[in-house]
């Protein structure tokens, strides 16, 4: 399709130029995310190639010092809390929205997605203003609540996609066989949409784990998360420990999102098998 | 689906429909309607927890923030007597002595209540230089030693200067357009019209223009880099396309902060980008790419490229190769076929990708904060600064209001032309 059936030499040149251009674009895409990886194993304190030598000293700093350890702990608390709430409530909402009788889907859907569109500074500043009044600023609950708003759209969309392949007659069959709604949900619906739910959970986890702006406004000094430590570190002093932290965060995000996408694809794939 | 409509009724609804029909000899359709209504309520109840939580954690905070842009009772609360004395004033010249006396009493009160500094700050926001004058007058009133308050007020030239009293009068209304106008470098003039603020006070139009410029530059750059790559991925065999798409998705899945961190490392004076430029002979000496506009645009382009590319690719994927073959067989040259057959079909994808990137760029905060210099800060950075440094919530709210109007306006266009489902990327 790149070349016409009887390519002229000018056309061959154009296709060669296209490949060259795209090769450069791919380098532009990949080099910046790969660069921190070797630098994080540098034994020296500078960001210069060639590396002075290999060492894991910067990983020891990130995993071994109190400042970073507490940041990792805080990140995990917030991300797990967000995942739990966003996945539970997001799944319920996706099930409700997949029902044709749901009133006002056209209004609810844009409202649900709006946290993705509203600039995050506005969300963060607004949360800070409101949460300070109701005593939620500088609490884990406050950060988790704000992160849930950012993460739940991903759950609703992914679970919603896996529900488009779900045959509601199965729920009727379960009901006719005497299963109560809750039993039918756990025994029939949940196993079938589980890939979508898990994928939504992974999206929610990563959304919270990578988020820094809301945390910047809502967290007290003792509640700094890993991204916030990185942000502060980048502003104040560029230490190679940041490349180690960045590599760790990147590895976790990519692994979780690869899993999430594979699961999401599997969840949607059921549409093909169930008709 | 519509053919299956009758079986859409689930068992509980049918059961209730039956029993309702049995108890009440009304028509079956009424019972059915009641059952449907119950059904609707139940689905709504499933969605209710998340909707309530979102209202609490997202909706109320934003409404509260935006309300601060138009609601500022600080001056009105601090100057109750003055507000009353100014009620009948026509705004021309100076008000009567009663207003001066009332202001003196209010100022003394605010000092006693400890709100004088708040008041001075609020007045200063509207009338630069007012802070020191208010605090000076408050001190004089405190140490008056029997001198009548009216004389003290008259002895400070600031209180008789043109502009002072109209500002005080406008501040006595808790609902105000002052901050929203300020966010657009506008203000009310003495005649009740709207005018530009003097050039030395005008900053925000410049910030908005800068934000739009950076967003447009990044959008254009992502299109130039992304369109050919999307075209290539859509044209090569499946296996190769899968490998190429991973090259797009890996950065897409990496957080903005991590990628910004990577760019701060790369853009250093002795970083890899400068090494490369020297080696290629493009630059003769090491450039200051950190804290520069060009560094900011490069980093933002890297982060936004997948957002532009993926919608374009998803449309390109659906265009059958046979269409181009048909065009060739009808005698079209490659470029003509591309322009007349391919481009018009890809256009919605290009629009979706570019609009998405442009909208997201308007709200950028992290990357300008870390990579941009002082003159590269975008509107989000100003909002954060008004909250963190200046503690001026009203101005932060007004800027948020205008940023939100632009963002939602553009998103409305996006949703109208392209539909919301394009947001489901990959």
What does this structure look like?
The complex is a heterodimer of chains A (275) and B (426). Chain A has 12 helices and no strands. Chain A is mainly α and 275 residues long. Chain A has a single domain, classed as MetI-like fold. The radius of gyration of chain A is 24 Å and the shape is globular. Chain A starts with 8 loop residues before the first helix and ends with a helix. Chain B is mainly α and 426 residues long. Chain B contains 20 helices and 2 strands. In chain B, β1 and β2 form a beta hairpin. The longest helix of chain B is centred in the N-terminal third of the chain and has 43 residues. At the A-B interface, α1, α4, α5, α6 and α7 of A face α2, α11, α12, α13 and α15 of B. Chain A: Belongs to the binding-protein-dependent transport system permease family. Chain A: It comes from Mesorhizobium loti R88b. Chain A: It is a multi-pass membrane protein. Chain A: One of its GO terms (cellular component) is plasma membrane. Chain A: It is found in: Cell inner membrane; Cell membrane.
